Structures
1.
Amino acid sequence: MDIFADFFGGMGANLALGFSQAVTLDNLFYCFVGVLLGTAIGVLPGLGPIATIALLLPITFKLDPVSALIMLSGIYYGAQYGGSTTAILINLPGETSSVVTAIDGHQMAKKGKAGLALFTSAVGSFFAGTVATFLIVGFAPVLASAALKFSPADYFSLMVMGFVAAVVLAQGSLLKALAMIVLGLLIAMVGPSESGSPRFTFDNPEFFDGFDFVALSMGIFGIGEIIRNLEDETKREAIKSRFLDLIPTKAELKEMIPPILRGTGIGSALGILPGGGAILGAFAAYSLEKRLSKTPQDFGKGKLAGVAGPESANNAGAQVSFIPMLTLGIPSNPVMALMLGALIIHRIVPGPTLVTDRPELFWGVVSSMWIGNFMLLVLNLPLIGMWVKFLTIPYRLLFPGIVTICCIGVYSVSNNPFDVHTMAACGLIGYVLFKLECEPAPLLLGFVIGRLMEQYFTRAMQLSFGDATVFVREPISASLLLVSAIALVLVLLPAIRKKREEAFAE
Amino acid sequence: MRKWLLAAAGILALGISGASAQNYPTRSITMMIPFAAGGPTDTVGRLIAESMTKNLGQQVIVENAAGAGGTRAPGLVVKATPDGYTILLHHIGMSTAPTLYRKLAYKPLEDFEFVGLVTDAPMSLIARPGLEAKDMKGVLEYIAKTKEKTSYANAGIGSASHLCGMLLQAAVKQQFNTINFSGTGPAMTDILGDRVDLMCDQTTNTTGQIKGGKVKAYGVTTKTRVKSLPDLPPLDQAGLPGFEVAVWHGIYAPKGTPKEVVARLTQALQAALKDPKVISAFAELGTEPVPQDQATGPALQAKLKAEIDKWRPLIQAAGQFAD
Amino acid sequence: MIRPIFKFPGANMASTTSKPTSPLAVITAVIGAALIGVLFYLRSIEVGWYVLLALIAAYLVAAFFVLRRDGGFGGVSNPKDFYTGILLLGACGVFAAGLVELPLGRVARPGPGFFPLMLLSLLFIFSIAILINGLRTKGEALTPVPWRGLIIITGMTVFFGATIKGLGFIPAIVVTAFVSCLATRHWTLVSAFATAAILAVFSWAIFIWGLGLPIALCGSWLRALLISLGVAGESIPFCY
């Protein structure tokens, strides 16, 4: 009992300290500016949180470190949220995290349910953010040291499992989904290798840096989608949608709650891993929902659970990824690395001693996360009406705008015309993939994870002195691989049997 | 809001070009950093950029062009217009690249104008928490016992930790199982997780972990103790006589940048190195600014030449080439 | 029709959403993937590459004979899969050409070519399996392609990339937006002009005025043109 009293007492005191830091007029202002700016850059394709935070770093030098970090983290999760909006409305995932949201979210929008999809995404994100904040408050140090148990081999196997999740997510042929993942992984290999020597560049300097994710994703999804919509122009005119549609019915509410809970769980669990677990969260959540659903055939056609689960997982993962940064000083993604830099410039050395040395900073930032999430909710619910209105513009007027904004957005990432050309090529590829019924989402997952996966593979092999059995010898890795294998067999077997049933029926 | 955003973006100057050397600078200056944001070199760069901004009256914007073991950013800077609006901050890697990379797109000594040295950052040798050795002697015994199975983490080829590792291998006459990571963060994960034995990295990256007692620490790579880590002996005295390496940083401009512009940049650098804010921030990182007479072009040029000659035989002996 | 005796937990899902998959294709993929594993294991015990090449050749020959015996070359019955397989094989070729010059390293110290070679082998196996599926299962025919939209949209994207530096922000946007409007047959001159104008103003307001992106409003070609027409360089600072 005493332990619990201490625990909750301590938690209360910590939170009180945190809120006393975060709820000052200044900090609330910076938090608001952060989420507002974050939402804005998230909605616009192109410029992501990394570029924005890098641009803003100089002015944060003049701020108090707590305010600086509060504003920067506001941008981070604001951008996550804004990215989902574009993904849902015009099938344009500008962030890795919104690739999965686009699958069912955009289909919902096409059915006139954009309001509901945006509402689900807002509420799911808020809930996940709240849970994740409490996780950080209660268990940050414990979770962080648990995450250290993951060896390179375990990470490799975790990524294999992520791929199985992406295969399950596929609507069509499983073989094609597998091929798409491998193709994505190979495309990620283009550019400098770990030692810096160029690979697959065919001596063309434009390829030396590899491809840009934003260009790839906006080409395959955004431009590809436009070409595909031009196929039958009569169908895709204005979408009728009323503001009131965003308020879910009781049945819809009932439908979205369990996926939100599960998504939060998965996202939090994967987000703790500093080596890129958060990327897999949305994919895993989507696959789980599809697997648990009674009507899996509806996924990919505008299923509410397909938005609720991944969105919650995203936000939980984004929030929880602060744990390794604040408690271990290990950045789990480039945004966290920038935050780390911001801290160091404020002469705060992040690491295990941060919580005890600078409690006001640690708890202030943690509390501001919750406040930021709340602000996002308040900011975005009224905006949904505006976004939905946006879709009532006839498509023939809308698509030239999407093309142009995509071009500017991709160009703005690094002022490199080559990125725009990459996007054009990827638009064609995206359209061909659609024609041939190949899923683009697994390809993008492969692309995002390719580099990391190679690094983990290489490291695992080096650490084991070339013994490949390390992947089945280490318990975490072995169990992850076993789960993947079972899942894959379960998905493959019925597909074969179906074919045989057809043969027998003849 | 608009004003704020503009200030925020730090791109006040919409690129009004045609600057002449007399009224330099008339728009924002880009400082390229060859490593990812948040790393130690980036931190040094941002502190200096912030302070130089005050002196120059124009934003000095840091741009991270990480990749290719720190050879990507210099390659970009060499190709930039030599007008003083693109400069480079690089560390010791500038002197090792010509030996590590046999196909380098630039010549460090010939393709740049030299602005000045910035700082000499010390490094520290740390180990996984489960390593039993109590001091450097214990580490040497451990290496003698495990031989080539001793694992050593570095933050990527060409990084300071990679160079320190090579020096260490030469000092103990034993090749390690060197594992390349893509940055100090991932490397630290495997040190903290008890999977990789040793790492030698800049104190910027290690001080937090050492003070928190999460890793074992055995010494610093300078000849004298470091103020922020007073308990650590210099490796020179702790069992590796003569062992010394410091991560020196310098600022460069592309070849052909006007003399007056380079002089103006040197002046701004010297002012930044006198800035109390920079000095105290450097102290926190366990380092200090170089003396004013070192923050000059000729000093940097001499240092670079000496260091290239110092590292060439070491790298060739280790047989480690990056490409 | 045979009723399954027991139901797999995921059976309801896969049987409703998955396209029919030929068992032969799956077997090809599984055996192939297993072969890759064996190959890399053999490689790890330093077997020469010619052994591995011989194994791959044996696999291909076996696949060919199995297909022929099964009467698999009956024609392209599932074009979507067939063409996917062909395209993926093409991608394999491109990556194989790039892989040749990469050092593979050792298993204990994989080089830059090691992981890509693993991936390439897998992709090759999957391509063959998908190709077989294209010959062995029934699928829908390909639907017509909207050539007009496809050419205009990709063309304008390429145009934007090619001219953003030379023409600059505003002209590139106006042309891109205007011509993009022609991608649909339901365009009118008024709407195209209006769209282009609105987009130019809107993009300027957001990206240049609001976010302060460092993109020239009119580019270097236009600057040169204007100067050659006698306009003073100082009067057009927004062109660079």
2.
Amino acid sequence: MVPLSWYMGLSAAVFSIGIFGFLTRRNIIIMFMSIELMLNAVNINLVAMSHYLQDIRGQVMVMFIIAVAAAEAAIGLAIIIAIFRNRATVHVDEINEMKG
Amino acid sequence: MTDLDSMIPNTLAYPILTVLTFLPIVGGLLLMLVPSSSHRLIRTSALGMTLLTFLLSLPLFTSFDKSTWMMQFTENRPWIEAWNINYSLGVDGISVLFVLLSTLVAILCVLISWTAIEQKVKEFHVAILIIEGAMIGVFCSLDLFLFYVFWEAMLIPMYLLIGIWGGPGRLYATIKFFLYTLVGSLLMLIGIITLYLKGGQTFSIPELMAQAPGFSVELQLTLWVAFFAAFAVKVPMFPVHTWLPDAHTEAPTAGSVILAAVLIKMGAYGFLRFSIPFFPGATQLMAVPMMALSVVAIVYGAVICYGQTDLKRLIAYSSVSHMGFVTLGIFALNTQGLEGGILQMLNHGVVTGGLFLMVGAVYERTHSREIAYYGGMARSLPVYAVFFMVLTLSAIGFPTTNGFIGEFLILLGGFARHKPLGVVAATGVILGAGYMLWLYRRVFFQETSENVSALQDLTGREIVAVLPMLIFVFWIGLYPNAFLGFMHASVEHLIAQVGQAEETLTLAQVLMGR
Amino acid sequence: MDITMVHILIPALPFLAFLVNGLLGARLIRDQAHWVATLAVAGSWVLSVMTLMDVLHGKTFYGNIYTWISSGGLDVSVGFSIDPLTAVMLIVVTTVSTLVHVYSVGYMHGERGYWRFYAYLSLFTFSMLMLVMSNNFVQLFFGWEAVGLCSYLLIGFYYDKEAAAVAGSKAFIVNRFGDFGFALGVFLVFLTFGSLDYRTVFAALSGWESPVVEVFGLEADLVTVIALLLFCGAVGKSAQIPLHVWLPDAMEGPTPVSALIHAATMVTAGVFLVARCNPLFNLSATAMSTVAIVGAITSLFAATIALVQNDIKRVVAYSTISQLGYMVLACGVGAYSAGIFHLYTHAFFKALLFLGAGSVIHAVHDQDIRNMGGLFKHMKITAITFWIASLSISGFPLLAGFFSKDEILWMAYASGGVQGKLLWLVGTLVALLTAFYSFRLIFLTFHGEFRGGHEKEHHLHESSPVITVPLIILCVGAVASGWVGLPPVFGMENQFAHFLQPVLGHPEAHGTHAEEWMVMGVSVAVGLLGIGAAWVLYGRRSDLPARLGALANGVPYRWLLNKYYVDELYNLVFIRATVAAARNVLVAVTDGAVIEGIVNGVPAMIGRISEKVRGLQTGVLHHYASIMAFGVLLLFAIVIGWGGG
């Protein structure tokens, strides 16, 4: 049986990749994918812990996250498409409308 | 005493207060379904709706039991049981007349806007109807939570009314109006929550009237100040009055009328309904300071009128002065003062509401509010001049008009309670005559200005809109007992409630920690 | 008709006329408005005479019609009190009013707003009748304000003339100063006696010990405070110093109005008030002295101004103020019936003077007596009646003014003490001045050469009968109205004083018959002296007036001509100061700078802070993300460090 720490390690690694991707890339699609990575890292963690603690609530939580992530992906992609149609770019540095 | 002892259930064929509150609101929502382009249909149905509400409100006048101070026509249903919030409505001698005033004023607002409003006609009438419902809700609520909902709900359509259909400076005026009132209201909200927590987890007003007077004077004083913040802004009392001239000046006629006739009455109503019976100890302590503040408002509001060049602004400042009379009477805490104060609230609604109707009618023709623009209108608009004269006379407290009865009772009550303040307040009568007659002379007498020489006199529709006000001027002026009769029992009860408070402390002692 | 119906109809008839003319005048009645109004007021006159007869037979009335205001312990009714004092006032008001109504048919003929004029006159008559018939203070106050309103409307009748409109407002506002005191007096009456009914209040006064109260740090009897506050109202309405300024300006109104309102009736309401409240005033020696002194000073002050005025109506107006001072003086020495007696005779001869002046103005179309002269030969009836009225006011023996004025002077003299003698001296001096300015007016207007140009002289003519008949009737009054109050030295009781005694009481007179004859002789002598002096200065051509005017560099003359600059002073102190305070302090500083400064300043400050802070929002997504990431790390560090520590 794979020990818990492996799962935790995997989760941490995926999460770090997600963060790294989010911070370093400028393409909004890639950044979006990084977010998905982070979410899934959390899911891995939750499932592992759920199994380890024999508590079903962790897995329920995962279902939630998947559902939310799906919704988020749908809306997020829609927004990205809208932005692209308007600005003809997916480069985040060129989108700074919210500058104070 | 318990909650239900002081409430007489509604025995009419329909739940009158619910109907009055929600008929206009529902009507307003239904009006949204009408196509925007059919202006005539919108106007007539809004008029029909307000008329219907008015007719349905008449039983309040005829079936009201004047012999008791208890809440009448009450309805009581649980609403949010988890927090002990009830949908509880009822009126007593203090509030009943304002419900009637609200239903009447709404009709006049629709009438006077008949041709004045050309843009977004549907939305305008929806706003008016919703305001009407919320106003009535404020006066009927017997549950603090419900009250607060209506209190705040009023604000939004009013904000839109000024902000969309107002004059050139409307944006500044609306934001000022909104923020001013909101700051006050939020303090009151804190007060309400405190009351709920300390007063036995209830929002019921009759129950709190039994609970809250038992609080320590320090707590009462804190809560009193929190409520005061909301009510003083609404009245408006000096020095938080500066939103009123801006709001009045920029508001469309109907907005000004609602503001003057009903909305600013809510502040004074709040004092009567909450501050005084809930916190009698604090009220006793604050009575003389409040009277002093009222007197400042009377004199200040009157003197500042002498520096105005804008017709609506002048009337707005005169409102500050007149509302000073109202609060003076209320905090005299004797029968004449309180009854005079309540009557004067009604009077001010009639007179200042009427004056704004009149000014609106002529503004629609000339699009000028400058006093200097006018002159000699008695020649070109005789009917208008006569109507304005009657309202002017009432504003300066001429006997046989309603203004006299109110001011007489208030000054008598104020004088009885505190002689020096009564004397200073009475100077308001001189100052008031001064600026109103100056205004009248400047606008109606002297050489006829060419700006107004060809204007049309009041139309039949406008006469119908103003005439009810004139009828009330003389009705109240000649037979005030028809209205004072509603108040006697409730006012006596109110005085009894305050009378129980300990009067041994002075404000200074409480503030210094006894 | 039962007795109350008569009483209700007395004021109700003019009120109905007001309603009819007011509502239908503009469209239907127009130049027939006088019928409605005149018939109504004539009806009131008939009813008033009936009432007087009733009262003479001892049938008085006191009762309420309906409850007007009731609140707490306060109960105010509308009701009537018909007693001798009311009966006299009713006769005065309805008589003069009827004659003025008739006169106006000619005088106001063809004026724009003819119906409006009659509507106002009817409203005035109604209000004045309500005032004198009232049985309580609040209804009195109603009449008080309502006559003020009518005065305002009628002074401003020619409202497109700025001077008229200003004068109207001025009259109303100056009166408000008096009403301010009056209202406070009424409040004190209520708080002290718990009622505002005359009967209840006056009944409570007998045997009442007035408590001592502190006012502005001074100790005073409560009754003195009440009496003086009520007297404030009288000062305003009866144009006593210092609130006299409105009455001369009120001459901007049409002349019949000046005769009715500003001479015969409304302005005497103050005297009526003091007489009506005599039980109150009698309790306070201080208040009585004040009343007497104010009356004396006013009469002297106004008489001196009247000496040099050139506007025919203003001379008569100052004469009115001066005579009102007499009446107030009489009340102040406790001789209320003498005051009312003078009020009653004065109503005839002063209304006559005004209406005569109106007749002159109608003919000359000018009010400046420097442009008149020699009118006697053109308008004989006007001139003769004017002569008789002037003789009457100057106290020429056996005319109405002689008896009433003599009564006042004698009562002042006989009221005792140094004060009484001084008041008498002032009164006698005023009698001299009165005779002088009255005849200055006569000589300049009716005698000598016409100074208004040949063109105008051709058009001079006597007025129509509708104008001259009221003059003749009033002239009868100016001659004979005094005969109802012959003084005791003539060998019989003063009938007029006897009639009023139940209401006004009877003052003690400290003096002998010889002294009374002396007082009478002196007053006749000074009257003739004044007439003679007027003849010397103005009856003959002479440069004496000019030389007198130039005395002391003309300073006294200018002061008199400019009415002691009181108007200018008030204008500066009250009006300019208020407006300046409003504009420069309230609008600009307190509302503008302070309150609005805070109201707009707080949001502005928040705005400025946000101006600085918002630089943090770069709009670059990565900046936000990095900050978030580091923030999370920081939180981790804190949590772990904290947990470990």
